[in-house]
Design goal:
There is one protein chain. Helices cover about 45% and strands about 25% of the residues. The chain has helices at about 10-30, 50-60, 90-100; strands at about 30-35, 40-45, 65-70, 75-80. The protein has a four-stranded antiparallel β-sheet, covered by helices on one side. Helix 1 packs across helix 2 and helix 1 (about 10-30) crosses helix 3 (about 90-100). The termini are far apart.
Length: about 100
């Protein structure tokens, strides 16, 4: 059974913070790649803190998702967002929301 996010898990202040971070990340993402069970995003190192804040907030409402941060030798890093097979539609919707933020 596919999971849905519980945005009620965020306070109004956290929701506002989440939306502001999502807008920032949508503007700074360098690459988005769909993988079998999710997406990998590449960001400049300058937004590391914003990405970790995003992950902490996203985990509150979507604990079924898995997050992986990978730091490279360069000036960028990747965030991989994974879900179970039946979460694919939800993950796609989350990614589209980030793209449109």
């Amino acid at each position: 059974m596919a999971s849905d996010g519980d945005f009620g898990a965020l306070s109004d202040a956290q929701r506002a913070q989440y939306e502001a971070i999502a807008r920032k990340l949508a503007q700074t993402v360098q690459n988005t790649q769909e993988i079998r069970d999710g997406y990998t995003f590449r960001f400049p190192l300058a937004v590391w803190g914003a990405v970790t804040d995003f992950v902490l907030l996203e985990r509150k409402c979507c604990p079924f998702l898995r997050f992986e941060l990978s730091l490279t030798d360069g000036d960028d890093f990747s965030l991989t967002l994974r879900g179970r097979d039946d979460d694919a539609a939800f993950v796609r919707a989350e990614v589209e929301a980030l793209r449109l933020a």
